[in-house]
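Hi there,

I know you've been waiting on this one. I reran it after we fixed the sequence typo, so this is the corrected version. Both the input and the resulting structure follow.
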Amino acid sequence: METRDLAGKPVAFDEDGHMANREDWNEDVARALANEEDIAELTDRHWIVINFMRQEFDAKGDAPSIRKLTKESGVNTKELYQLFPKGPAKKAAKIAGLPKPKGCI
C-alpha cells in the first residue's frame, strides 16, 4: 500500500491507485486527486457526478457503472466523458475517494 501527502495529509492508496480509507476523503483531497488526473478544476457538473457516486456507494457498497451514472445522475454519456476523460467511472470513483468500480477493468 502506498501513502502520499494530499491536501496536507497522508493518504493511503490501494494497488489500483484508489484511496484505501474513505474517511480520509474531503473536497480538498478530491481537488488534489483531480489535479493528478489532469482535471484542473472541479466544476459543479463534476461535483454532481462525484456526490452521486458517493451516495450510491453509501447505499449499495459499490460505485455505480457508467450506465447508472448516465441514467440517474443527470449527466449524459458525452458530458461524462468530457468531465472525466479516458474511463469516466473509474476516474470519477478515484476522485470521489471510492474503490475501483467492480465493472471496470
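Quick highlight: The domain at 2-95 is CATH 1.10.10.370 (Arc Repressor Mutant, subunit A).

Best,
R. S.
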